[in-house]
Backbone:
């Protein structure tokens, strides 16, 4: 039986002669690539036939290959409307850039530029100079460097400052940041040895003090990005830990994660430690991301003492982790917003954080009205995401959609994702929720249309 069926599998040449595939070849697609795709598809069909499936016709194989080829040609990543209310959504690309930052990245990629050239003397310059100057002004650091991402900045920092020696970390901070990124593992990769002090809930400055030896290269404080320790707890202030470092001539490194250059507390949520505060409190080197609360491109920034930054710049890993021109151009523009004082208006992340409840409520009302009687407005909250103030919520007003007519909330969420543009929504208590905080206001009408389309059933058509 199976042998007969296998004999009925189409031949490669038959598939190539089918109109769907012939059209691809006529368009100019490479014959060898299309032929391999056809072979692969037939091999899959062969395996399925062995498992008892009927063999496909040459026409079916041709159609599959044409469809897969066209799909892989579509723009990637696909633009989506983020209706989750999570501002720094890692799966959706974290921070959207300001229009000026986008233009700067596009301009940097268009032609040649002074990325590493000093126009005055015609000599080689540093790709980090411009960004470092702004970071010095904004944070009070003596110098700074920007690399691929914050995990990279930490790896570089630990390798340059502490390889072969010891780094003291509180047990309460030797954590996993996410996606398998664990502080103890980064330390191992950097070549430094981890010395844990204190307990998971209580650590004192004296714990650091007692652990300092001739082998100590640095003290490391890691911001608790994605968890909170509550109850019977103690952690020493940064000032007290820095004092231990100063007394023993050991630098204090501080991984901040988010890098808020504005005060989050003005929006009724907790205060996220700012790089300038950490440095003022005595940290010698701070690490933070470019695409979290900074609101710029993916990058990892290390700012602080000039001799430490110089060690980072000179380390071979700096080359391996270096940021490219698109990133540096966008980062430079993003930092300029803070210097000019228009970050709150121009940087999307801060616009979303600062959106008032009245404004969100009014937008939700209009969107719900457009969707129709299955939509209502409810109280809810948005989150910063991306490991910033994990337990804090920004009060919001949300559009809640009754999905019973289309088979429940999971089905409605699936339809929203499959729509054009795709909408990523939130499901809570059997309701599908749309949070307008993470939707640019000029796209509200589009969101309402997508939701209406997702709710339409055969009966409506
Ligand atoms: C997010 C985060 C990191 C990693 O930053 P990436 O830019 O994602 O590499 C490291 N440390 C802390 C505390 C973080 O919150």
Residues:
């Amino acid at each position: 039986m199976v042998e007969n069926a296998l004999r009925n599998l189409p031949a490669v040449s038959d598939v190539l002669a089918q109109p769907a595939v012939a059209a691809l070849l006529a368009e100019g697609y490479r014959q060898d690539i299309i032929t391999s795709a056809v072979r692969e598809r037939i091999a899959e069909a062969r395996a399925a036939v062995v498992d008892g499936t009927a063999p496909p016709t040459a026409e079916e194989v041709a159609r599959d290959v044409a469809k897969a080829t066209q799909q892989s040609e579509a723009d990637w990543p696909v633009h989506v409307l983020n209706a989750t209310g999570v501002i720094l959504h890692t799966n959706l690309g974290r921070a959207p850039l300001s229009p000026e930052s986008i233009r700067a990245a596009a301009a940097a990629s268009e032609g040649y530029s002074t990325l590493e050239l000093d126009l005055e003397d015609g000599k080689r310059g540093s790709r980090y100079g411009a960004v470092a100057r702004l970071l010095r002004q904004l944070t009070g650091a003596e110098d700074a460097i920007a690399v691929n991402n914050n995990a990279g900045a930490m790896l570089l920092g630990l390798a340059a400052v502490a390889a072969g020696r010891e780094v003291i970390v509180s047990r309460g901070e030797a954590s996993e940041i996410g996606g398998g990124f664990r502080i103890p593992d980064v330390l191992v990769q950097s070549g430094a040895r981890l010395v844990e002090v204190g307990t998971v809930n209580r650590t004192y400055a004296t714990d650091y003090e007692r652990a300092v030896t001739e082998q100590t290269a640095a003290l490391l404080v890691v911001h608790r990005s994605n968890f909170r320790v509550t109850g019977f707890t103690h952690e020493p202030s940064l000032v007290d830990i820095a004092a231990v470092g100063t007394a023993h001539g050991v630098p204090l490194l501080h991984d901040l994660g988010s890098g808020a250059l504005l005060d989050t507390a003005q929006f009724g949520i907790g205060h996220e430690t700012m790089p300038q505060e950490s440095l003022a409190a005595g940290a010698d080197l701070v690490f933070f991301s470019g695409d979290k609360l900074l609101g710029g491109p993916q990058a990892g920034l290390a700012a602080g003492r000039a001799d430490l930054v110089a060690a980072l710049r000179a380390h071979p890993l700096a080359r391996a982790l270096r940021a490219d021109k698109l990133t540096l151009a966008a980062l430079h523009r993003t930092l300029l917003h803070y210097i000019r004082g228009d970050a709150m208006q121009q940087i999307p992340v801060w616009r979303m954080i600062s959106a008032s409840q009245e404004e969100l409520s009014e937008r939700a009302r209009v969107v719900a009205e457009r969707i129709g009687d299955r939509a209502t407005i409810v109280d809810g909250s948005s989150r910063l995401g991306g490991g910033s103030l994990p337990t804090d919520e920004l009060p919001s007003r949300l559009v809640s959609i009754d999905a019973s007519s289309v088979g429940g909330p999971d089905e409605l969420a699936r339809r929203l994702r499959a729509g054009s543009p795709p909408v990523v929504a939130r499901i809570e208590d059997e309701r599908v929720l749309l949070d307008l905080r993470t939707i640019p206001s000029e796209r509200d009408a589009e969101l309402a249309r997508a939701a209406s389309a997702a709710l339409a059933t055969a009966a409506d058509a």
